[in-house]
């Protein structure tokens, strides 16, 4: 009996049913695709934010009498490759070692003191047991640096920040005297930061020039991290063994910094908090926005189903009145409308699932330049969302149908 009623309802109201199925499928597609995005947004957005600079800084550890005598300490260049041996090695996207010194610089005017920096721009490092090289250097950490000309790759070449170049009166191709030795300016650099007042050379060339082979002042690290929560800010020294293992094996910026500190001899590793905290806030707010949009999509779709079903009910008032007059109680009326809603939800959910796959891939390519991974739980999420939409959409029509008085309806139909 119930099957015949539902079949008759679909056969006699094809346009209304098609409209409700379309509403459910669109709402389901939006909700399921947004939920899919929310599961991958941390990695995708964090990777995009990595282009704004390093989020971990490794420096020499200075303690004891060295702090009083202001002695300089250095890291070992040979430890740089060890960044790809830690537990979270696959999260290390960029590494840029830096050697910083002070030199006397002159061109056509009197000499002045400037900061001379040695680093790599783009250098392939061999990884133990792997065929592919790891690309380290400034390009991997700060790809937004603008270099006019080329990075110095010869022992007698250097590049200079635009502000420093203007102050000493040099340009690309000019000669610059650094500590009594002539260097050719191979390009200029502009970042909008302190680099505009510095001079840069290739790391190994500067080490030979200053007789500082194998020494590094600091290392900038760009790593994918998990947004910081309350647990991440706890002091590891106060944690139990189980808590410490959980913290150590979670990709917080603090736990990755701790692991990096362990592989650099005589080092102190610390997060760049301005970057790390900003990333966490951005990701948290994006997730809240996604969930709000998901709720709005579900509510709008549910409202569409409810409105269409009420319009359909108005054409079936006499039918409902006759059913009540022949003995149908409230539970039977509710069962009929809920069954229709569930059938609409099941059909709309399957269509919405197919639309969600296409929508999530499209959004991934357009926003993140890569498709989103198809999750196995997308189908149950789509069906669950569709059934929720259709069930919520039947609430008002059911309430209206239960208030129908058979005597009034049937009398008016004569």
Give the helix/strand layout:
Elements: H1 2-12, H2 14-49, E1 56-60, H3 66-69, E2 75-76, E3 92-106, E4 112-119, E5 123-125, E6 134-136, H4 138-141, E7 146-149, E8 157-161, H5 162-168, E9 175-178, E10 181-190, E11 198-202, H6 203-209, E12 215-216, E13 218-223, H7 241-248, H8 253-263, E14 267-271, H9 273-314, H10 317-325, H11 330-368, H12 378-393, H13 395-402, H14 406-412
Parallel strand pairs: 4-11, 8-10
Antiparallel strand pairs: 1-13, 1-14, 2-12, 3-4, 3-9, 3-13, 5-6, 7-10, 8-11, 9-10
What does this molecule look like?
The structure is a single chain. This protein is α+β, with helices and mostly antiparallel strands. It folds into 2 domains: 2-46 and 281-412, no CATH class; 55-271, no CATH class. 50% of the residues lie in helices and 19% in strands. The protein has 14 helices and 14 strands. The strands form 3 sheets. The protein has a 6-stranded mixed barrel. Strands 2-12 form a two-stranded antiparallel ribbon. Strands 5-6 form a two-stranded antiparallel sheet. Strand 9 (175-178) and strand 10 form a beta hairpin. Helix 2 (14-49) packs parallel to helix 11 and helix 2 (14-49) packs across helix 12 (378-393). It starts with a helix and ends with a helix. The model has no long low-confidence stretch (mean pLDDT 83).
């Amino acid at each position: 009996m119930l099957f015949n009623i539902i079949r008759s309802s679909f056969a006699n109201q094809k346009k209304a049913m098609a409209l409700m199925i379309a509403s459910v499928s669109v709402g389901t597609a939006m909700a399921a695709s947004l939920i899919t995005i929310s599961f991958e947004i941390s990695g995708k957005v964090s990777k995009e934010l990595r282009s704004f600079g390093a989020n971990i800084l490794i420096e020499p550890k200075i303690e004891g009498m060295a702090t009083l005598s202001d002695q300089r300490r250095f890291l070992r260049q040979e430890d740089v490759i060890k960044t790809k041996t830690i537990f979270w090695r696959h999260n290390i996207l960029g590494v840029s070692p830096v050697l910083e010194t002070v030199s006397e610089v002159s061109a056509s005017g009197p000499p002045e003191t400037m900061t001379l920096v040695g680093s790599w721009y783009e250098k392939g490092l061999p990884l133990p047991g792997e065929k592919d090289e790891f690309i380290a250097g400034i390009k991997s950490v700060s790809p937004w640096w603008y270099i006019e000309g080329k990075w110095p790759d010869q022992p007698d070449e250097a590049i200079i920040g635009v502000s420093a170049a203007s102050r000493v009166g040099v340009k690309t191709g000019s000669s610059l005297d650094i500590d009594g030795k002539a260097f050719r300016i191979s390009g200029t650099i502009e970042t909008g930061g302190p680099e505009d007042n510095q001079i840069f050379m290739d790391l190994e060339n500067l080490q030979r020039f200053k007789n500082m082979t194998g020494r590094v002042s600091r290392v900038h690290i760009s790593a994918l991290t998990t947004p910081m929560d309350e647990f991440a800010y706890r002091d590891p020294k106060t944690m139990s063994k189980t808590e410490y293992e959980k913290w150590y094996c979670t990709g917080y910026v603090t736990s990755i910094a701790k692991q990096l500190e362990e592989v650099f001899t005589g080092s102190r590793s610390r997060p760049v908090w301005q970057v790390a905290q900003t990333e966490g806030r951005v990701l948290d707010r994006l997730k809240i926005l996604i969930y709000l949009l998901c709720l709005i999509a579900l509510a709008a779709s549910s409202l569409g189903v409810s409105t269409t079903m009420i319009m359909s009910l108005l054409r079936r008032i006499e039918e409902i009145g006759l059913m009540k007059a022949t003995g149908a109680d409230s539970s039977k009326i509710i069962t009929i409308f809920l069954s229709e809603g569930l059938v609409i939800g099941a059909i709309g959910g399957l269509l919405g699932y197919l639309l969600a796959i296409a929508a999530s891939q499209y959004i991934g390519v357009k926003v993140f330049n890569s498709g989103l991974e198809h999750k196995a739980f997308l189908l149950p999420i789509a069906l669950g969302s569709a059934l929720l939409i259709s069930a919520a959409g039947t609430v008002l029509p059911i309430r209206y149908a239960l208030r129908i008085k058979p005597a009034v309806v049937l009398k008016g139909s004569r």
